[in-house]
Every structure is written in structure tokens, then in C-alpha cells.
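look at this record:
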Amino acid sequence: MAKVVIFDSGVGGLSIFSELVRLMPEASVVYASDNAAYPYGDKSERYLKTRVKACLDTLVQYHQPDMVVVACNTASTVVLPVLRAHFSIPVVGVVPAIKTAAQVTNNGVIGLLATPGTVTRVYTDDLIIRFAKHCDVIKVGSRVLVDLAEAKLRSQTVDLSRLKQELLPFEQAPVRPDTIVLGCTHFPLLLSELQQISPSIRWVDSGSAIARRVRTLLEQQKKLKPEHAGIYQAMFTANTTSVTQLKPYLFQLGFSALSILPIDEAFTVFSEPMAINAVTVS
């Protein structure tokens, strides 16, 4: 049976998880959240390279997956070359869907809504030069949307006024973008609210494309077995109140077990994974 590790600093990667299991219900998934170091968006590149590699070393050794998906735009734009050189299994990253946006825009103006780190990275500028050179690109970095998405999955009401405030740079532009890239995996979790505020905008993310890429690679490895149903586990690097608050949503998504794999700031695992009130699926 195919097994995939999806890795993120928070819960944004659950948007990738949903696309992946919709396309491949036969694949087993370990969703690993490095919530001890959340958020990644304000971390240095040096820190991220060390931290992400240390976490994935532990996860790959423990779970022996067929593939890793780095479901974090910030980490992907920094760490992918390091991970691909280090691991023998495929490592799939998530980058802003700028190419897609540039292909579907009608007025030639697109927006990029991502974390402050992602919008300022050279990697992002290179994507714009390669795929959207003919477009005007308005970049907006937001930390607020990450927090709103995290809160939403813990059953808290999304503050639409705060969300609207974050979109003002697009609304106040000389020419309003008709297409906006959701350049952080957290942001598709707020799609219904974004559509409510700006129904005429075409919102683009890379979730479905990533799922198709994972499926192609697993088919090449002949790992997919349609007769099997996937098993979904969630792991966190810190046992916090927010993890407990997240449990009902994880249950809805079909996760059968939650556990803690503590990894301290020195990037060392100091205990075996601890089960935390495993979710029972009836």
C-alpha cells in the first residue's frame, strides 16, 4: 500500500491532504505538523533548512514512506533542493501557482497572496519572470490569514473584517487583479470566506496539481493498490491546546490516530511518539 508523508508547520497542508485523498483514497497518509516551530513564515532560511531536514529525517525513518510532500510554500521555496539531494524517495514541493494564474487571467493583472517570507523570496521572483512576465503582478504578504485559517479549523469564527483588510492592496490597485494566487497552503482553507468578500475574483491554488503529481509518481512506482483503503494518521511535534481543539476537524477528515513526536529546538527527538486520545472511527 502506498504511504505518503505530508509535512507542514501548521494545518495549511490539510488543504493538500484533502485533494490527495479525494484523488487517491487508496493511499495511506501521515500528516505531520511541526507545530513546535510554527509558523515557518517568519523563520530564517538557515533555520528552515536545518529544522525541516531534521524533522523529515525522523519521520522518514519512523514511517518508511514512499514519498514526502512538503505542503508549505515557505519551506518549499527554501528547502526542496536540500531534501531532494538527501532522500532517496521522491520529495514533492508546493510553490505558488503563478503559471496557472498567468494563463487564465483576462485583464493581465494577477495577485499573489502569500506569507511575507514567500512574497519576498528570490524563488518567487523567478517564477514571476519565467511564467508571468507579460502580466502585472501585485504581491501581498499576510501573516493574518495564516492565523485565521488555523483558528477556523479549531471551530472559531473567521473575522471577515480582518480578512477584508488584508485584501485592500488588491482592491486599491490602479487595475484590480481578476485572478489571485493563494500562495500559502493555509489560504485555500479560507476559500469560502474569500469568495464571499470578493466573488468576482478567480482564486487559484496548487492543491489539485500537487495531488495529480503525487498520483503520477506513485503509479510509476506501482505502489497504488485500488483494493485497499488508505489509513490516515496525524502527528505533531508539540502537544498543545490547539492540537486538542483540532481533533474534531481531523475526525471529520477521516484520521484514525493522533500522536506527538516531540522534536526540541536542538532538532533532537527526545521520546518515542506518544498517542494522544486516538480518534475512533465508527
